[in-house]
Amino acid sequence: MRRFLILSHRVPVSGAFSLNDLAGGGGRVDEIARCVSTAFLVSNDLRRDTELTVLFAQAPPPAARRMHFVGERIRHLNPDERSTAALIKNALVRSIPFDHPIEASPGLFVGPTDPLPELARALASGPAYWLTESGAPLGVDEPAPDATVVLGDVDDPRPEEVELLERSDARKRSLGPISLRASQCIDVWHNRADLVAGGAPGLPPERSPTAVVRTD
Ligand SMILES: C[S@@+](CC[C@H](N)C(=O)[O-])C[C@H]1O[C@@H](n2cnc3c(N)ncnc32)[C@H](O)[C@@H]1O
User: Fold this and answer.
1) What CATH code is assigned to 2-211?
2) Rounded to the nearest whole angstrom, what is the distance from the C-alpha of residue 151 to the centroid of ligand 1?
């Protein structure tokens, strides 16, 4: 299982934004939508062995929200970012009256959270990586198959999150000298992990890169 965790600080946790203004009033929910898209979608298929969590911390608890996407169950995920942003918006809006997580649409769980303890819990649940430009270069053979990969969104983690990450056992790693979008980091991570795994998790063997065999 590959797990991504994104720390989001600008997206209105009430879901009160227009689908015509994803980057402005939506607090760059366009980038969160791209992260969801790159985490799960490949050409004509889905990565079912992937999960992605977004901690929406634009407002403090109890308004803060944890959104959890499960590749094995997810439906209604289309390649365009507007429809993914609509899934996110609808989930945030639907969760408002609940004090517990709900499955807002198949494979998309959302509920109240306290972001810092939730981040600590995720970091303690197994091998973890914190992707940051200031980390040590990610080794070619390094991506662990069951790792949780923590990323900022359009901003870097807040100081209290950085402190927690620094205190944790998460490996602080860089994907290269250029500051990338979070969604691009997910693409790079998947590719690096695919190469380590020798195939693509969750894809049927005939669609795996290892199935391409030269006969000459
Ligand atoms: C758009 S970047 C954050 C803003 C960026 N630090 C800047 O100076 O503009 C979003 C996140 O992507 C990840 N990231 C971006 N470039 C990276 C790199 N070269 N190596 C590892 N992680 C990176 C980090 O987790 C970062 O918080």
Assistant:
1) 3.40.1280.10
2) 7
> How many whole angstroms from 146 Cα to the centroid of ligand 1?
22
Domain ranges of the chain: 2-211
Say if ligand 1 is within 6 A of residue 138 CB: no
Task: Give the separation between CA 155 and CA 168, rounded to whole angstroms.
Answer: 20
pTM of the model: 0.92
Q: How many angstroms separate the CA atoms of 134 and 169, rounded? A: 16
Q: Is the CB of 133 under 6 A from ligand 1?
A: yes
For residues 34 and 16, what is the distance between their CA atoms, to the nearest angstrom?
19
The CA distance from 166 to 158, in Å, is 12
Distance 183 CA to ligand 1 centre (A): 10
Model confidence pLDDT, tens digit, residues 20-66: 999 999 999 999 999 999 999 999 899 999 999 999 999 999 999 99
pLDDT for 145 equals 85
Which atom of ligand 1 is found nearest the CA of 130? 25
Q: Whose CA is nearest to atom 12 of ligand 1?
A: 182
**Residue 21 in contact with residue 98, Cβ under 8 Å?**
no
